[in-house]
Amino acid sequence: MSHFMVEIALADMDEAFMEKVPEQRAKINEMMEQGRILSYSLAADRSKLWCIVSADSELAVLEALAEFPLIDYMTPDIIELMFSNVVSLRVPMFSLN
């Protein structure tokens, strides 16, 4: 399994775009829970998204992106990564004693 950085240029946000945002967020959360998307970031000016996708090939990344409700508003650029270091929050283990 490889990691891919996907830089996504976003089209202007019209009313139809905004109506699909909740669906997009739900899909991203689902894909993150599945381990298919490792990170997802939006530029402050809302012009670009970046995500790291875990997939076997660039074609598999495109298939994953095709599941996005907002895909019609996106122009992706996909780059295979040699590695990706990500800081994750660690929740301490609870003792049942």
TrEMBL record:
Organism: Fibrella aestuarina BUZ 2
Annotated Muconolactone isomerase domain residues: 12-81
Pfam families referenced in this protein's UniProt entry, alphabetically: MIase
Gene3D superfamilies in the cross-refs: Dimeric alpha+beta barrel
Source domain of life: Bacteria
Protein name stated in the entry: Muconolactone isomerase domain-containing protein
